[in-house]
Amino acid sequence: MPATQLLIGEEWVDAATGATGQTVDPATGEILADFAEASPADVDAAVSAARSGFESDEWRSLTPDARGKILWRIADLIEENGAELAALETSDQGQPIGVSTNVSIPLAAQTFRYYAGWATKLEGKVSPVSIPGQFTYQQRRPLGVVGLITPWNFPFDIAAWKLAPALATGNAAILKPAEQTPLSTVRLVELAREAGVPAGVVNLLTGGPEVGKALVAHDGVDKISFTGSTAVGQDIVRAAAASLKRVGLELGGKAPSIVAQDADIDAAVMGNLQGALFNTGQACGAFTRFFVHRSRVDEFVEKIAAAADALKIGPGSDPETVVGPLASAEHLARVHGFVTSGKTEGAQLVTGGERVGGELENGFFYRPTVFTEVTDEMTIAREEIFGPVLSIMPYEDLDEAIARANNTDFGLAAVVWTQDLKTAHSLPERIEAGTVFVNQLPLIDPGAPWGGFGKSGWGREMGAYSLDEYTETQSVFINLG
Q1: 6-251+456-479 falls under which CATH superfamily?
Q2: pTM greater than 0.90
């Protein structure tokens, strides 16, 4: 595969310095491709191009219906190129091909179609003010130039979640994918241009953390939307304070799963296992802390450990793979470090806890790992691991389970397993999380907002709520006197 380039305005170009980076197949450790490593000069050029694109007559004169048609066309192109995009996502990120084919790519297309519909529905309102002789109304205005910084776990989907509402509301965008997984985002930007997005309205910068830092600090950027770690999100807030640019953050998670005494244990075991190991646990909404009623905990541990041991581990390209590789050697070492801390701090290892060897030894594979006898103070119970590590924690009653589930800095997602209708409806409002699931996997749909409480971030992606993230409200007073 030839080296990928930056898109600045209407030109695909090498980095100003000529520097390149490399992206690696996590299933084999082999180099997949080179990509342009953007410099501060490239960031300046991209911001200038985005400003020109935002202010251009070609973009501003488009009717809402025309903007919607472009987004719909992007969705069509995603579906037409679905097999290619899924293969890119699997090779670059490691997702099992079933996930990339049946979840990631369809969800991205669905997201663009959802926001295509919103392009014609960005309504304001008339306000009945008490000043005589005044006609007063509000309207939504695009922010201008938005920087979209995406992570390595679901690179294609999360780029779509940010780009679609940004375009639907009339902004110009600069996409900056994670340096570990740039390839599917490069292709998305190509498809956006093919769909008719005018020059400068979508730009692409690839490279490492310094590129993102330069984008955040740039006075010409009106908003940063970032998905990634809480620590980096905190750095972004500090850097953005100088220019008071808008910031949207979807950060870490430590999702609790509360298994009630009346739960269907077999359903809870399979649902929790899938919710914990989806994309090898590399999901901010992955179930990670399992609060199981003490009367059911032995059965739960035995069944989930056996089910975890039976899962097929292998490269994402194998259609039978359930657990693929972790995204990088660095992340593999980080996950193993957490497992080591769990053992050191006294948790009981039931299964897993080691790297996969044999024919998979060159890839970044790690066995699904189950701990029991985990206490709330242990590192594995408090820090986001972002890997296939499950911590099982018994409780006596639901009040205790809720208090312990809420005893975290994070608040992105949670799940409740119960067969009691009252419990299903009463527990969610007591749980401090942006999304609470009941008897199911951590699903995402464009029509429902996604985001967290506490250190899980600011603002919401998806749904009508994300329109607020990319617009300002302007009031107009007309003197009729």
Answers
A1: Aldehyde Dehydrogenase; Chain A, domain 1 (3.40.605.10)
A2: yes
